[in-house]
Prior knowledge:
3 helices, Aminopeptidase, globular
Amino acid sequence: MQQLLAHPDETLLVAEEDNSILGVVSLHFIPQLALAGDFCRISYFCVDPAARGKGIGNALESRAQELALARRCDRIEVHCHARRTDAHRFYYRQGYAESPLYFCKRIKRDN
């Protein structure tokens, strides 16, 4: 977490109440070469199951959008596994659209 917080293109938002963490969202801001606007990637987004339905996710996502706009981003992207159907419904309600093509290559270090 220290490495994340020390990076100039990373932001971690935390929602808390009575010294209890209710939710977190980790943002990574990525400059673009070929496109006019940069983009913000949500790398981790979680709301405590007991706090869901109370607007915590909405508040975190709204703040993420404010920060993305301040960083001159014109979009936010999030990768969400197919099995996370509740999360998909949340993202659709927030105005996200599905972008179906995504490639991933796992790499291994020598050590």
